[in-house]
Amino acid sequence: MNAAVALRARMATSAVARRGFSTTRAQLGSPYHYPEGPRSNIPFNPLTRFFFLRYWAFMTVGFGTPFAIAVWQTYKSG
């Protein structure tokens, strides 16, 4: 077990085991840079009027559809 610890310590100091984490400043003129901040990474705007009604309608239809289909298939004659 001591040999494994010594090997791990020796590998940690080698140049292969070290990684340089560096970043560059985001270039605003780049076509691949998108705006950052709250609500900028979602495909809808939650600040619009009646958003909560559209949200809950979407969630109700999405969650209820499989159950409605199951009930329809259960009571379907045939």
UniProtKB/TrEMBL annotation:
Sequence similarity: Belongs to the cytochrome c oxidase VIIc family.
Pfam families on file: COX7C
Protein origin, superkingdom: Eukaryota
Organism lineage string: Eukaryota, Fungi, Dikarya, Ascomycota, Pezizomycotina
Main location per the UniProt record: mitochondrion
Keyword annotations: Membrane, Mitochondrion, Mitochondrion inner membrane, Transit peptide, Transmembrane, Transmembrane helix
Protein's pathway: Energy metabolism; oxidative phosphorylation
CC per GO annotation: mitochondrial inner membrane; respiratory chain complex IV
GO BP annotation list: mitochondrial electron transport, cytochrome c to oxygen
Transmembrane segments: 53-72
Compartments, record wording: Mitochondrion inner membrane
Subunit structure: Component of the cytochrome c oxidase (complex IV, CIV), a multisubunit enzyme composed of a catalytic core of 3 subunits and several supernumerary subunits. The complex exists as a monomer or a dimer and forms supercomplexes (SCs) in the inner mitochondrial membrane with ubiquinol-cytochrome c oxidoreductase (cytochrome b-c1 complex, complex III, CIII).
Function according to Swiss-Prot or TrEMBL: Component of the cytochrome c oxidase, the last enzyme in the mitochondrial electron transport chain which drives oxidative phosphorylation. The respiratory chain contains 3 multisubunit complexes succinate dehydrogenase (complex II, CII), ubiquinol-cytochrome c oxidoreductase (cytochrome b-c1 complex, complex III, CIII) and cytochrome c oxidase (complex IV, CIV), that cooperate to transfer electrons derived from NADH and succinate to molecular oxygen, creating an electrochemical gradient over the inner membrane that drives transmembrane transport and the ATP synthase.
Protein's membrane topology: Single-pass membrane protein
SUPFAM superfamilies with a match to the protein in the record: Mitochondrial cytochrome c oxidase subunit VIIc (aka VIIIa) (SSF81427)
Name assigned to this protein: Cytochrome c oxidase subunit 8, mitochondrial
